[in-house]
Design goal:
This is HicB-like antitoxin of toxin-antitoxin system domain-containing protein. Pfam families: HicB_lk_antitox. By secondary structure, the chain is an alpha+beta fold. The protein has one domain: Double Stranded RNA Binding Domain (2-Layer Sandwich). It is built from 1 helix and 3 strands. It has a 3-stranded antiparallel β-sheet, with helices on one face. A hairpin with a 5-residue loop joins strand 1 and strand 2. It is elongated and about 45 Å long.
Protein backbone atom coordinates (compact mmCIF):
# COMPACT_ATOMS: atom_id res chain seq x y z
CA UNK A 1 0.00 0.00 0.00
CA UNK A 2 1.26 3.47 -0.83
CA UNK A 3 0.11 6.49 1.15
CA UNK A 4 1.03 10.14 0.98
CA UNK A 5 2.51 11.51 4.21
CA UNK A 6 2.85 15.21 4.97
CA UNK A 7 5.78 16.14 7.19
CA UNK A 8 6.13 19.63 8.61
CA UNK A 9 8.38 21.08 11.26
CA UNK A 10 6.46 22.77 14.07
CA UNK A 11 7.44 25.87 16.03
CA UNK A 12 9.24 23.73 18.63
CA UNK A 13 11.39 22.05 15.98
CA UNK A 14 9.58 18.70 16.07
CA UNK A 15 8.67 17.01 12.81
CA UNK A 16 4.96 16.23 12.58
CA UNK A 17 3.78 13.55 10.15
CA UNK A 18 0.18 13.22 8.96
CA UNK A 19 -1.56 10.82 6.58
CA UNK A 20 -4.40 12.80 4.96
CA UNK A 21 -6.10 9.63 3.67
CA UNK A 22 -6.33 8.22 7.22
CA UNK A 23 -8.23 10.65 9.46
CA UNK A 24 -6.51 11.10 12.80
CA UNK A 25 -3.35 9.26 11.77
CA UNK A 26 -0.60 11.52 13.10
CA UNK A 27 2.82 11.12 14.66
CA UNK A 28 5.97 13.11 15.30
CA UNK A 29 9.69 12.81 15.84
CA UNK A 30 12.73 14.84 16.76
CA UNK A 31 14.12 14.24 13.25
CA UNK A 32 12.47 13.68 9.90
CA UNK A 33 13.71 10.07 9.92
CA UNK A 34 12.20 9.48 13.36
CA UNK A 35 8.90 11.00 12.25
CA UNK A 36 8.81 8.65 9.23
CA UNK A 37 9.52 5.61 11.42
CA UNK A 38 6.85 6.71 13.89
CA UNK A 39 4.21 7.37 11.24
CA UNK A 40 4.78 3.89 9.81
CA UNK A 41 3.93 2.45 13.24
CA UNK A 42 0.94 4.79 13.51
CA UNK A 43 -0.35 3.63 10.10
CA UNK A 44 -0.07 -0.02 11.15
CA UNK A 45 -1.96 0.73 14.37
CA UNK A 46 -4.61 2.75 12.52
CA UNK A 47 -5.18 -0.11 10.08
CA UNK A 48 -5.45 -2.69 12.86
CA UNK A 49 -8.05 -0.62 14.71
CA UNK A 50 -10.11 0.00 11.58
CA UNK A 51 -9.98 -3.66 10.54
CA UNK A 52 -11.10 -4.76 14.01
CA UNK A 53 -14.08 -2.40 13.83
CA UNK A 54 -15.27 -3.78 10.52
CA UNK A 55 -14.44 -7.16 9.13
CA UNK A 56 -13.65 -6.84 5.43
CA UNK A 57 -14.49 -9.59 2.98
CA UNK A 58 -11.38 -9.83 0.75
CA UNK A 59 -13.52 -11.07 -2.14
CA UNK A 60 -15.27 -7.69 -2.16
CA UNK A 61 -12.05 -5.68 -2.51
CA UNK A 62 -10.55 -4.38 -5.73
CA UNK A 63 -7.46 -2.32 -6.45
CA UNK A 64 -7.83 0.98 -8.29
CA UNK A 65 -4.86 2.86 -9.73
CA UNK A 66 -5.15 6.55 -10.45
Amino acid sequence: MKLHVLIEQDEDGMYVAEVPALPGCLSQGATQEEAVANIKEAIEGWMEVMESKRKIDPTQMIEVLI
